[in-house]
Amino acid sequence: MRFSGTIALLPILLTACVTAPIPSRTAGILDEKVVSECRRQIDGKMYATVQKACAPVKRYTAVDPVATLDIRLLEHDFDILMRRPEIKQYLVDQAEKQDPTDVVKLAPMYLDLGFSQLRFMNAPEAAIPPLERALSYPPAALDQKLRYEGVRSLLTAYTRAGRYDDAIALTESYQPPSGQLGMATLASDIWWQRIRAAQDAGLSPDPSWVARRWAILRKQAVSGEATELRRTGLHCIMPLHEVKKMFRNEGQALVEVFVGPSMSPGAAATIAQSSGYARLDETALAMAQRIQCAPEQTPARFRMPFLLKVSAP
Fold first, then answer.
1. pLDDT, tens digit, for every residue of 104-116?
2. How deeply is 248 buried, as exposed, middle or buried, from its count of CB atoms within 10 A (0-12, 13-18, 19+)?
3. Residues 6+ apart with CB under 8 A from 79
4. End-to-end CA distance of the chain, in Å?
5. Does the N terminus or the C terminus of the chain have fewer Cβ atoms within 10 A?
6. Which ranges of 84-235 does DSSP label H, i.e. alpha helix?
7. CB-CB contact of 272 with 307 (8 Å)
8. What is the pLDDT of residue 262?
């Protein structure tokens, strides 16, 4: 129903396009020399001047609805270059030279450098120093949203780099703004990843890791961030934060779960009946695998239905 207005206007818009083509509002002002110079500086990675050289191209594509494919590709290559950590490091270095005391300017730049290393280059070790530097500045240097995003990224970098103690220490020292995912939930998942990493390496997890995660899970169950699974012969807790709120379609997966004895640090899970959506099945398995049981638990096997809303695969 919400598209009815667009459908009704479509014939009018199409007629207008046929009878009166929209001319380029910037036709003739993007000189070929500008295009060539922008391309030369992108290919040469001329960080000092490429933004100025390509600024006319960005302005052109912003207002011209019929920019050529070559121009769009040029803009794409410029955007990719601007995402690379090398240019972000260059910009940070220049800002440090200009005024090393301008923390309001420097903190977001270091944060952006860390994001680039982590997300664009998938280099967690390289991401850690700039993220730590950004978060070391006084609170006023970053707004709450940016600081929270920085903390989440630093936790990811620590965990991917195997620096679990640093990650746990960060969850214990930082209080997120209201409405954001709590540190207990993040700490629970970090402990789970540490435990699983040991298991995947063929090692027995330290019992203290399992005990600390169980203590966190019990707090989560009280706060509503986890659900207790209680029935005859079963006392386990499953964190809930793996459910993605942006999913659109709905389906149900039936998961078969096997839990071991004495605070088993993770459950074995398989799909007994698929929901028909790969992403729902993956989410259900991820949630089931994070189940942890009480000290008195004996081995048990059971099935759990997961009714979730998921996006189309």
1. 999 999 999 999 9
2. exposed
3. none
4. 24
5. N
6. 85-98, 103-115, 124-136, 144-160, 164-173, 183-200, 207-223
7. no
8. 60
